[in-house]
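Technical annex B. To support the medicinal chemistry partners, we prepared a structural model of the target in complex with zinc ion, based solely on the information shown next.
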Amino acid sequence: MNFFQCFQISCQGATTITTFAVFLRDKVEPALRRAVYERTAKAIAEDMQGKFLDFRGNRANLEVSILKYLAEQENFEYFRQYLMFPKEFFQSYIKRQVKSYCLDGSRRLEKFLDSSLSLLYRNILSAASLSSQIVKDRTDREDKVSLWLDEFCRELTEVISLPRSDLKGIEHQEVSDIEFLSSAMEDNLDDLRDRLQKEFAAANMNSFSTQPHTILAEHFSGCWEQCPFCGAVCTNTMQGHDGDHQLVFHRPQGVKGWRWIETDHLVIDICSSDVASDCTFRIGDNKSIPYKRYRDAGPPYSTWNILPDPSMQAYWKWFVSHFQTHLEALYNRKFQGKGEIPEAWRRITKEEALSELDKH
Ligand SMILES: [Zn+2]
Ligand SMILES: [Zn+2]
């Protein structure tokens, strides 16, 4: 073999290896990007659950945080959304917290993405090097590339989703210089990492296919049924649970717009004291049902277990007093007559209402 032939062969070998490395890099890229986002979403959710008081406990604890937030904001529109669509409000509350944690001045999102990328990148590099080690010693096998790919994909099973079947296009390449292949792969993976790093610097929450707040919100799922009288949410932690819906703190029924029969006077009593009273409520056009037998009204009433309990949280007394005109305008009804707001309610300060929440 003369010099020219020798040069030609080595050039062909180099081209083959380059083609191989570029093809493989292009397959790794989308899988790596996806894995980085998936890993990062979980890491952010976990980090926030450890660091934020709001997210450390159960849904009842989170609800206390939300009630505090609402009182601090003093924006009736937020209250309205929370009262009408509690589940959506919880989710948007979590989403807002996650967003500000990730995208505030310290750009935590980029740091989270970088750390996931570094970890996965190291795993991929070591898979490439391990595959080369194994294949190099297999003098018995001609199909070195195919073997290399087998090892590479197997090593990465838990790291990224790279099906071996997607790599059939290059498995018949003739490559004998495995060392060279290994270093070509390293160069290409380096380029890929640098490119992804730049891309992640511009990432935002929409870059995730499953956003971190969705993962975090799963910890606070459960039953979202609302009491038909006051709108408070069932506290059962199982969605679609057996047995009746139940909760501890009912609210003044006027919060949900209930009025006294034949008047436009909003009700300030809570359902848990009504069920022990001789009062009746009306459903449909003129069907009156005694509160004591509220289950006779059928679903949704019959699916609730409302235990007699006259205690009402100061928070709701403060809310009704503070937002009286807003509630009256919302329902086009008045806190009058039997729905007159007691003076004692008006004297409750926001601080008192909030400090009582902490006691439970
Ligand atoms: Zn209720
Ligand atoms: Zn329930």
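Notes passed to the chemistry partners:
The first strand starts at residue 280 and ends at 283.
Residues 227, 229-230, 232, 250, 271 surround zinc ion (ligand 1) (CB under 6 Å).
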